[in-house]
Amino acid sequence: MILIISKKNDQSTIEVMKWLSKMAKKCIFVYEDEVFEIKTKYKRVLIESQRNTFFLDEIASVWYRRGGIRFNRYQYENNSVNIHMNETQYWLEDYVLKTLESKKHLNKQSNCHVNKLLVLEKAQKAGLNVPEYFLAENTNEVAINKTIVKPIAGNPILESLEKNCDGIMYTSIVENKIKENFFISFFQEKIEKDFEIRSFYLDGKIWSMAIFSQNDEQTKTDFRKYNLEKPNRNVRYNLPKEIETKVHQLMQSLDLNCGSIDFMKSCDKYYFLEINPIGQFGNVSADCNYLLEKEIAEYL
Length: 300
Fold this sequence. Notes:
- By secondary structure, this protein is α+β, with helices and mostly antiparallel strands.
- 24% of the residues lie in helices and 32% in strands.
């Protein structure tokens, strides 16, 4: 049995499940709003929510896409008993999650988010080129129009920034000095790119797509500022084998076996930008006809 942990409306998850159905592979889909209880039956550990019930030992493989498994915790009136039982429940939950992660898997709930700063350091150790970067709380040492600023956090979405409206933080060029200090921010050397590359990594294999975003002022600095009227040209691309080998080393050092990776090509150099273990890959699959959803279903 395959366990899939994701969000209800994640299109990539839906496409993978279609392939699993075609392959006659049975799966259980855990939503982000489910709450489970840990029980026992026939001397086996049983995991139960209002939607799903399964034995821990019947799960053969796990795909952590998004969301997460959450557990209901019982509370007790006596404070000493409550402290003890809270710890007991924690270790039961820990056992369940670690047992699931010990099975054949794609990504883990425990390391689905990575520290961008540590990733960049590890990328350099793996021999990948990384644009010069630094942290600062003012623009005193920032080279105007030659430096970009981007979020330190992995999630650029600001939910409910205004009423019924979310926001997104894009990579931007620093065009002016600011007199006041601000919260520590991430600055990076601006690279004049030939094009961007989005790669999808799956258990040692890499599929890449070149994104010709540099010819459009709207997408030149950040291709996520999609131009729906005149979309960027996206084509299949093969990274040099030496780059793919270094990517594999990096993924192993991060204990990741799946994820979306961004590069930038400038002249004869490839610059590593970032990894998102739960990043989007649907456009790479569709635009390049890679059928990545089928690849995932076959792996599981």
